[in-house]
Specification:
elongated; Arc Repressor Mutant, subunit A; two-stranded antiparallel sheet; mainly alpha; 140 residues
Length: 140
């Protein structure tokens, strides 16, 4: 079975950490402790979020991260697109076996279905904001 991509959930974790912090500016080291991931991995994720305009960073050993927008202005779809995870569903890339109707037509049969599912995932993420996630976290 293929490995599950966790970039999106880690990005939401980092953004939630920034939104929940009373300091509002945290280092990648502090954020990496919350996620329990390596600081270098967190820095790569932070770079993607910064490039997307979702957080602002300062450079250097004591560099910090801060949300660039209010949590209610950041949708989960914004975060999802920032970290560029693979689509939720993908069709295998094995070449079709000539003479097998299933093998020759499975891609066409599935593509529309999987596109609809991906669109539904993105529509749900569009409706949910970082503020919603933070409120759930703070409610315990």
């Amino acid at each position: 079975m293929a490995a599950v991509n966790t970039q999106f959930s880690i990005a939401v974790h980092l953004m939630s950490g920034l939104g929940c912090s009373s300091r509002k500016d945290l280092t990648s080291g502090t954020l990496s402790k919350s996620v329990n991931a390596s600081p270098s991995f967190v820095r790569r994720t932070v770079a993607k979020l910064s490039k997307a305009g979702l957080i602002r960073t300062t450079r250097g050993k004591t560099g910090t991260c801060v949300l660039a927008k209010r949590p209610r202005e950041i949708s989960l779809l914004d975060i999802y697109r920032a970290v560029e995870p693979p689509k939720a569903f993908a069709i295998h890339s094995y070449p079709p076996m000539k003479g097998c109707a299933v093998s020759c037509h499975i891609h066409a049969a599935l593509q529309g279905i999987l596109d609809k599912a991906q669109n539904a995932v993105e529509a749900s993420l569009r409706k949910t904001t970082l503020a919603d996630v933070i409120a759930t976290i703070q409610a315990g």
